[in-house]
DNA sequence: TCCACTATCGAACAACCTGTTCGGTTATGA
DNA sequence: TCATAACCGAACAGGTTGTTCGATAGTGGA
């Protein structure tokens, strides 16, 4: 109830404007009960994030194919639309959740590129940052309603933008 | 004095933890004086952002060359390092400033691609989101100290990641 | 059924932060 | 010299946070 209340309130007022009093009022929960389960407003946000399982999508690392996480992740997001909107959108607790998402995705992308033969180096890290940035940017714009594209269209756009560059870098090694 | 105080405090405690009382204390300014010049804590943040002039870099649109904004912007950022760190870094007022930066950059990139012959369409917008995301991701990671690369190395990494994909899309039209 | 245990409630509280008001003080500049 | 503007800081009301505490309601085993 508390988690759902926070999501609803974020979508109405934005994360910053939501107070603990708002949450317990909406969730119909006593104040002391709230603080016996959660440390913070932020704690509720993160409990939602954990439940979402942003990293349930470890890529099976097929031969030759890059960025296998992309399409499944877009589809997973569509299934949990309001929740992701509250977590990742501009009205949400942007900084923190976005940071956590970037962190998880960075590890996935980096492993994938290394598996594809990339040499571990500082310039690989820069490449990974670009790829992750492109994906997160697309995702953020999507949940904020800046595009109405489907998951497969988003996946195609993501691949079209970054795959040629990545393959060119991989080819040089 | 107020602007500098906010920047210093953000780098120490993070934007959220900074209070107006902290700012006026650090800046040695009376409370009423603060509120006669600024509406908000956020107002101070934005006044800093305006002063930085994030969009002073309208590209001269040379023939054939893409993303002319990239290198000058990385260099500009290096000249105002602590300020940009406070504005754009994870400790800063991430959501708002990052959003404003994305917005400005989106217009720049979109115009550049259209000038280079891209057809205006929904898929162009998706491409622009990827390019902007990659650039902002790189910038954010840089100011947060996740890489020690130089502006020209960052520029090279950005171009290597996205230019092949963009040119491939442009070539199809 | 009885009882111990646990979860919940809600009122009250201190501490803090915000944004405003107001009377007094200081600087500016014509 | 003096009118104007800027500044100061104390005080204030209103709101938020996180804690405490005694009372109430539900749970599961003996």
Structure description:
- The structure is a homodimer of 173-residue chains.
- By secondary structure, chain A is mainly α.
- The first copy, chain A, has nine helices and no strands.
- The model of chain A has no long low-confidence stretch (mean pLDDT 92).
- Chain A binds a DNA duplex (30 and 30 nucleotides) through residues 19-21, 29-33, 35-36, 39.
Summarize the helices and strands and which ones pair or pack.
Two copies of one chain form a homodimer.
Chain A: H1 2-13, H2 20-27, H3 31-37, H4 41-52, H5 70-79, H6 81-88, H7 94-115, H8 122-143, H9 151-171
Chain A binds a DNA duplex (30 and 30 nucleotides) through residues 19-21, 29-33, 35-36, 39.
Short synopsis of the structure:
Two copies of one chain form a homodimer. With 173 residues, chain A is mostly helical.
Distance between the termini of chain A: 53 Å
- Percent strand of chain A equals under 5%
What helical percentage do the residues of chain A reach? Answer: over 70%
Structural class of chain A: mainly alpha
The best one-word shape of chain A is elongated
List keywords for this structure.
173 residues; mainly alpha; homodimer; 0% strand; DNA-binding; 71% helix
